[in-house]
């Protein structure tokens, strides 16, 4: 892993300082933006003229909250990984965060928190696989969140199709689940194969497992 460009948005100055000190001890990195609110944080990122490899975002911030900040980051820096570090713990809020494209969630109240390790896991593996990742409680987010991997933006229907292929379902079986024709299933297959530049089902399964689809 080369020198990492990091941004940190956290409204508590003492916590933000702790986070910065910790990542500087553990990672070869540059903090290219750090602020106590989303609005100033985005301005700092723009002024840096650099694309962050990863950012840590708090949800409860003045001027611009974490949700709106994340949406702007997804728009401005689509390749940037996003870790949410917050006291917010409602399950529907966490589902929403994964659905808009974050790569990891850590609760500030988590006694086992290791902030730098969370960043490193996301940088190395794409997602932070802690208790929030693919948990039974958050099962509804498991397939939605993969819409935001790399440059391959999938529709929810396409994500379902990938899931069914890993489960080795046939075209006929998928059509029955979707209450549609086999021709419609083939339409989705062709779209996905074109996006990934692949030609076989095995290539699709290999790709899916490579980015973390596990059954």
Give a description of the structure.
- The protein has helices at 13-26, 38-48, 66-76, 91-100, 115-125, 156-166, 171-178, 182-196, 201-210, and strands at residues 4-9, 29-35, 54-57, 81-86, 104-107.
- It has nine helices and five strands.
- It folds into two domains: 4-132, Response regulator (Rossmann fold); 152-210, Arc Repressor Mutant, subunit A.
- β4 (81-86), α4 and β5 form a beta-alpha-beta unit.
- The chain is of the alpha/beta class and 215 residues long.
- α2 runs parallel beside α3 and α7 (171-178) packs across α8.
- A five-stranded parallel beta sheet has the order 2-1-3-4-5, sandwiched between helices.
CATH architecture of the largest domain: 3-Layer(aba) Sandwich
User: Could you give the distance between the termini?
Assistant: 29 Å
Which descriptor suits the 3D outline?
A: elongated
Number of helices: 9
CATH superfamily of the largest domain: Response regulator
Domain count = 2
Whole-number mean pLDDT: 81
Any low-confidence stretches, pLDDT <50, length ≥5? 136-151
Oligomerization: single chain
CATH class label of the largest domain: Alpha Beta
* Count of distinct strands: 5
Strand order of the largest sheet: 2-1-3-4-5
């Amino acid at each position: 892993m080369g020198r990492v460009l990091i941004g940190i948005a956290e409204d508590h100055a003492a916590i933000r300082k702790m986070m910065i000190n910790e990542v500087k001890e553990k990672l070869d990195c540059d903090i290219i933006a750090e602020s106590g609110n989303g609005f100033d944080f985005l301005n700092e990122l723009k002024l840096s003229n650099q694309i962050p490899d990863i950012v840590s975002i708090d949800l409860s911030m003045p001027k611009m909250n974490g949700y709106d900040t994340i949406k702007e980051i997804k728009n401005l820096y689509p390749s940037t990984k996003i870790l949410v570090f917050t006291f917010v713990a409602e399950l529907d809020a966490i589902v929403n965060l994964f659905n808009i494209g974050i790569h990891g969630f850590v609760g500030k109240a988590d006694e086992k928190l290791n902030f730098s390790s969370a960043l490193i896991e996301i940088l190395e593996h794409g997602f932070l696989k802690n208790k929030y990742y693919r948990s039974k409680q958050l099962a509804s987010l498991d397939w939605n969140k993969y819409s935001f991997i790399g440059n391959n933006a999938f529709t929810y229907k396409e994500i379902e199709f990938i899931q069914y292929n890993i489960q080795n379902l046939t075209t006929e079986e998928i059509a029955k689940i979707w209450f549609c024709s086999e021709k419609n299933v083939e339409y989705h297959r062709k779209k996905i194969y074109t996006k990934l530049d692949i030609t076989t089902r095995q290539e699709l399964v290999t790709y899916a497992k490579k980015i973390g689809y596990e059954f």
